[in-house]
Write a structure and sequence with these properties.
The complex is a heterodimer. Chain A is of the alpha/beta class. Chain A contains 8 helices and 10 strands. The two termini of chain A are about 15 Å apart. At the A-B interface, helix 2 and helix 4 of A face helix 1, helix 12 and helix 13 of B. The structure holds adenosine-5'-triphosphate and magnesium ion.
């Protein structure tokens, strides 16, 4: 395959990855690239294979075939731990937070800081959590010490995203982060997504909402029935064309440089 | 200062909305109960009766402290009553007889055996994912059987080891009582102040000073009342005065378990698993390990509670671990404010709840009401506590995020 020569390899690159569940071929020979410092949107119809792709990257189940390259090096990801070790942090739409714990406790869950007595050292945890949220301009959070159950959906999502930043992850994957949110909170989370990319992280954003995608994404990858239908720069397409790609897997006005040839 | 108080009130309201009512309602409840019973019977608030009450409730309080951990996890342990019986029976059988073991060894054997029981039940719950209700219900029956097998042909085993009997029956001297109180309050105050200063220096939110002062005064005041009342002479023929040793032991256990729950990685993970097990798993927490450890803690505390109960009675018989021990232990944790839905609770709830139950039990006993009336009232209080829990939980979901 011919690619424009790059000086630095992309943060994450998938080459011809496939995944099937029994007779169901969820992903077939998918190529996918997520560079650092950019928001890559992953779109596609229900059942196109988006969540499957994410789960394979996150180590929940492995690909059947294909290569994963992280920072140019081929890697194997067999478990969520492997993914976390590489610096891949996934923000799930649900199940991301413990409602009964506060923001600090959630952000440090499983990676708590302890003092010389091996007791929890709340002070540095609270300082780091507060600093991270401030860096991300999350200012609506009144108290870091309230159970997250009492936060709004957008605030909870912000805490989940901030966790990815706090742990200096290199790639943040957000699975429909705005699906349950209102207008103002959606804007808040999208702004946060943008700031993540600007701070140098690679961001993969899964969304069914093309307004959101066009608002923040630099590139759009379209999955159609388990195949990568297109990988385009947001500036090169309009939402009409993306809708067509999502539903049919092709579009009429074919810019040769943007669409991978279908066999 | 005013800002700090407003901040605190806001935080407090947030916690109330998310289902944490704090310990104030239950303390007020205790005051109300005391006033009611004192009005009905002048003997309720006598030195004799209050000292009695402290000792009567101690076994259940110790067991309930373990139950709190299980409830935080969102599970239940119905076996703690008879597991405490197994512990007491092992202790009684080994520390008495022709070749009595040293008491340390007997206690160790009882506690270790019960810890193993808890690990076994926890492993079944964690790895086979059989609901803890069923596993520990089987435990309730099974360990009752084991108690009967252990004790059966002996009928009643009297315990004469002075150390074991002393656990629930010996008293500090009046001076020792005051000394322990002063040291305890000094440690508590320096802990509060230390935390305040550290957080203040790092510009983190702090509880307002008047509130800290209120807490310190409350703890010191309650402690002083207990010591003062217990130091009154309550003997008829020979002088009997002083704080029961078991009360001090319970406070020590309270501190240790509170640190375990609130200040260690393990404790944090118990709350996390109880709040959202899947999120905990994704955060890399060994969920099965946490579950096994918590059931082990519950059984271990049951063993210690069983030892306290046996010490108080100075004997163990075939009924050990039965009666209302299990129900009172679980009811204590819930009445004290631990949620049945998992994720919320504190070790001190066990103590507060056990005190409420014991006050009702004791006060109604003084009024020579029947056991039936006692159970009915205790049941009502338990229902109220569970209803408050459920309602605050509903408020939480309503206010929360769909
Ligand atoms: N664990 C599984 N076992 C069997 N089949 C699966 C499994 N997970 C996904 N699939 C199948 O793989 C295909 C892709 O599913 P996937 O969840 O990745 O879609 P999606 O793009 O995330 O869709 P949506 O937008 O609805 O979330 C579907 O046909 C689905 O039925
Ligand atoms: Mg999906």
């Amino acid at each position: 395959m011919s690619q424009t020569p790059q000086t630095t390899p992309p943060l994450l690159e998938l080459r011809k990855v496939s995944k099937s569940f029994g007779a169901v071929q969820a992903l077939k020979d998918v190529d996918f690239v997520a560079p650092a410092g950019t928001v890559t949107a992953l779109v596609g119809d229900n059942g196109a294979g988006k969540s499957t792709l994410i789960k394979c990257i996150g180590g929940i189940h492995p690909f059947d075939h294909g290569q994963i390259l992280f920072e140019g090096k081929e890697v194997a990801i067999h478990s969520p731990k492997d993914a976390a070790h590489l610096g891949i942090e996934i923000v799930y739409q649900d199940l991301a937070l413990c409602d009964n714990l506060d923001s600090v406790q959630n952000m440090f869950l499983g990676r708590e800081i302890r003092n010389w007595l091996r007791l929890l050292d709340e002070t540095p945890m609270e300082i780091a959590a507060g600093q991270t949220l401030r860096d991300l301009n999350v200012t609506t959070l009144k108290s870091l010490r309230m159970p997250v159950a009492s936060l709004s959906g957008g605030q909870r999502q912000s805490v989940a995203v901030a966790k990815a930043v706090l742990w200096k992850s290199k790639l943040a994957i957000l699975d429909e982060p705005t699906a349950a949110l209102g207008v103002a909170q959606t804007a808040q989370v999208l702004a946060l997504v943008r700031r993540l990319a600007e701070s140098g992280l690679g961001v993969i954003l899964i969304s069914h909402n093309l307004n959101d995608v066009f608002a923040v994404a630099d590139r759009i990858s379209v999955l159609h029935l388990g195949r990568m239908a297109a990988d385009v720069a947001t500036a090169d397409v309009d939402s009409q064309e993306v809708v067509e790609l999502i539903t049919t897997g092709r579009y009429r006005r074919q810019p040769a440089h943007a669409v991978r040839e279908e066999t | 200062m005013a800002v700090a108080i407003r901040e605190y009130l806001r935080g407090y309201l947030g916690r109330v909305r998310s289902g944490e009512l704090g310990t104030l309602p239950i303390i007020l409840g205790l005051v109300v109960i005391s006033i009611v019973f004192q009005n009905l019977n002048q003997n309720f608030l006598t030195a004799q009766n209050l000292a009695n009450l402290l000792v009567q409730g101690s076994g259940v309080a110790v067991i309930a402290m373990g139950v709190v951990f299980v409830l935080i996890l969102g599970e239940i342990d119905l076996s703690v009553g008879y597991v405490s019986g197994v512990g007491a029976a092992i202790l009684a059988l080994t520390v008495t007889g022709q070749h009595p073991w040293p008491w340390e060894l007997s206690v160790l054997a009882a506690v270790a055996a019960c810890a193993l029981i808890g690990a076994l039940q926890g492993t079944i719950v964690a790895l086979m994912r059989i609901p803890s209700f069923v596993v520990t219900l089987a435990g309730l029956l099974g360990w009752n059987g084991v108690v009967l097998l252990l004790v059966a042909d002996r009928g009643t085993i009297p315990i004469d080891n002075p150390v074991i009997v002393g656990v629930a029956n010996s008293l500090l001297t009046p001076d020792q009582g005051w000394l322990v109180l002063i040291v305890g309050v000094a440690l508590y105050v320096s802990f509060l102040m230390g935390q305040y200063i550290v957080r203040r220096r790092r510009h983190l939110s702090v509880d307002p000073l008047p509130l800290l002062a209120f807490r310190a005064v409350l703890v010191a005041g309650l402690g002083a009342v207990v010591v003062y009342v217990c130091n009154e002479n309550r003997g008829l023929l020979v002088p009997i005065q002083g704080v029961p040793v078991i009360t001090v032991l319970i406070v020590i256990m309270l501190v240790i378990l509170t640190v375990l729950a609130g200040r260690t990685k393990f404790g944090r993970h118990v709350y996390a698993v109880g709040g959202n097990a899947e999120a905990a798993r994704r955060a890399g927490i060994n969920v099965a390990g946490v579950r096994i450890a918590v059931f082990t803690i519950a059984s271990t505390m049951a063993a210690l509670g069983g030892i306290v109960l046996a010490s108080r009675l100075r004997s163990v018989d075939t009924g050990v671990g039965g009666g209302n021990i299990l129900l009172y232990s679980i009811a204590s944790a819930v009445i004290g404010g631990t949620s049945l839905f998992g994720g919320r609770g504190k070790v001190v709830h066990a103590l507060l709840g056990a005190t409420v139950i014991q006050a009702i039990d004791n006060g109604m006993g003084l009024l020579s009401l029947s056991a039936g009336a006692k159970f009915a009232v205790t049941g009502l209080v338990l229902f109220l506590a569970a209803a408050v829990d459920a309602l605050s939980r509903r408020g939480r979901t309503a206010a929360g995020i769909g």
